[in-house]
Amino acid sequence: MSNIFRREFRGLFTGAAGWTVLIALVFGAGILTTVNNFLSLSSDVTRMFPILCDALILLCPLLSAHSVTYDRAKHNTAWLRSLPLSRGAIVCGKYFAALALFGIAAVYFAIFPLLIGIWGKVSYGSAYASLLGWFLIAAAALAVSFLIASRTSRRWLAVLLGVLVCAVLYFLPLLAALIAAFPWVGILFFALLAAGAVLPSVLRDVKAGKVPLRGIAVFVPVCAAAVLLFFLAKRFYTAILPAVLDYLSVFSRLDGFRDGHFDLTGVVYLLSVPVVCLALTVVLPDPRRKKGGAAYA
What we know:
Blueprint: H1 2-14, H2 16-39, H3 49-73, H4 77-82, H5 87-109, H6 111-116, H7 124-150, H8 155-170, H9 172-181, H10 184-207, H11 213-232, H12 235-248, H13 255-258, H14 264-283
Helix pairs in contact: 1-2, 1-5, 2-3, 2-5, 3-7, 3-8, 5-7, 5-14, 7-8, 7-14, 9-12, 10-11
């Protein structure tokens, strides 16, 4: 896995992907610190992290799509298959190489409280707890994006679906409140969720000139079950589903770190997301296998 990590990490900086993500984070943090702290004469360093979390919605899918499709674009799939490495080692090597970019950015962000502390009183506990929360959220969002990218064969589709899924994770608290107030929104939620899940399969079947039976076999039962729940168990939409969605929210976990406390529940949850997503990435069959591709190539 270490060889894959070193190779992927170097590969991120031979193209534009790694530099784009790193420059966006570095310059974004600099601008936010200038506006929120120096121009506003405030010592609250934590104000930049919510906006940096917003940036992850785009940056994580971009980075994961590049990592997943890099070897295929360079025609290195045969070489990758010849290595005496398991699929799990390849997946983890690529993931941790991409995560290392966010680690570099986190080290850079760690300097900000020390600099601002020269001119004002800084709550270092809140600042570094927020930094930890941001990094864990980045790790979770990146793992989700890796899982999405592994289910597609096109880079643009991996980016699009990754952004959509990360946006849904971002707006989960709002969606939970909306479903609790208007239960029929829950039916639309399940319909869109099923549509997003079967979209790669439908596109492959349509491209091959086939009727997308597999996509229809998943989409129709999910929508039918959602409608039945609306009429037979409405409490599912008014209480149970909103509570589950609110708990699953990844980006809102930052609030538990900004007050300076070590949110153990948030840490455990945010660490469990990469574990589950990477395990699914390894276990689920690669849709490119049937085309002669390699796992994660």
